[in-house]
Amino acid sequence: xxxxxxxxxxxxxxxGKGSVIKKVFESGRKLYFSVSATTRAPRPGERDGxxxxxxxxxxxxxxxxxxxxLEHAEFVGNCYGTPKRYVDEAMDRGEDVILDIEVQGxxxxxxxxxxxxxxxxxxxxxAELRRRLTGRGTESEEKVEKRLQRSREEFQVAREYDYLVxxxxxxxxxxxxxxxxxxxxxxxxxxxxxxRRTLEAQ
Amino acid sequence: xxxxxxxxxxxxxxxGKGSVIKKVFESGRKLYFSVSATTRAPRPGERDGxxxxxxxxxxxxxxxxxxxxLEHAEFVGNCYGTPKRYVDEAMDRGEDVILDIEVQGxxxxxxxxxxxxxxxxxxxxxAELRRRLTGRGTESEEKVEKRLQRSREEFQVAREYDYLVxxxxxxxxxxxxxxxxxxxxxxxxxxxxxxRRTLEAQ
Lengths: 202, 202
Fold this sequence. Notes:
homodimer
């Protein structure tokens, strides 16, 4: 059985990574969504191992020491990270892995796993991203402007990504991600040896 | 409007390039199929500009001299070539171009147009390719064996292609080619500037 591949969906806060990934999963394609580990307390309704792997600060630090994370970061006093283990187990089962990740975290994973396919999700315009961030109603205007400034800076790394998808229309964006997943499995450099062996075996 | 891209479908004789391309066209995606030029006489039912551009030997030689071909070759006394002009016109109209090409011709195009996406179409097995070649009933056993030997040699270049598709199941092969076309339009290196301009314009 062919090993699964890892696909990183990165992009600015508010661009709709979660919605696009949800749509991609609705396609029925067999995919594994990587669940992050965090030291923050579960919110009402959140389930351990589904929404997050909820672990202690000490546990998190020992995982860092063991090199058990593909990437990790701290936000407002809480730690978040992507455990290697579940990603590797899924790929060994032949499943493709989808990672929903901030741009900084994507850089860490790229250094560790240059073979992971990087997809940058961009908004149709900065004005639309502002609307989406403001629409959440959870942040002050100043915070929204700071996030926008950071998003503009982060967009510059998109040039180095494998793919760039604009989240203007959700269906279209999800279809593009699915095409990227399907096409990535056709890459000659990865597929050549297996096809050569099959051809010669018969 | 974004410019179209060129997709080269290459692979051994008998692998089913024509059938896969036909299936790809049935998807309804807007594509341009490049019509070759030839010096051979039209067969009954063949239409000029549809099946081939039928031109004289002198015309063909002057097109070679003008650099009007993306690739050209001679088979059993007749010349065949891919005219640049129609390919470029289609791309300028924003259409993707599909080229059905022998492996040798694909090498010529790759040198001239390294940006063209190369897809190698492989048979599921050499035994199956032999069946398909024998099934045509047009060639002696010796010729079939020669073609097979050449196909095995040609397969070695597939490693350097962008993509490798196995024509085991026609629908699956066509779906993979369509995914490759869709994904190629999402490549960050090609798309970044246009997206950046759109983002800044609003």
